[in-house]
Write a structure and sequence with these properties.
By secondary structure, the chain is an all-alpha fold.
Length: 58
């Protein structure tokens, strides 16, 4: 389905953008761990929303 591909593309773009930002703007170890912990929670939330959206259209 087109919606699934769009969502996967958006997720991939988000991940690649975050990685590029980390390479361009390095931070200290403490800040990086704190950011990774927050990012993990955000991705879990986004994953839940994507799962719900996909199940609604299936």
């Amino acid at each position: 389905m087109c919606t699934s591909g769009f969502i996967k593309g958006m997720a991939a773009g988000l991940i690649l953008g975050a990685a590029a930002t980390m390479l361009v703007d390095p931070v200290s170890d403490r800040q990086r761990h704190k950011l990774m912990k927050k990012t993990e929670g955000v991705f879990k939330s986004i994953g839940g929303v994507i799962d719900t959206a996909v199940s609604m259209f299936s």
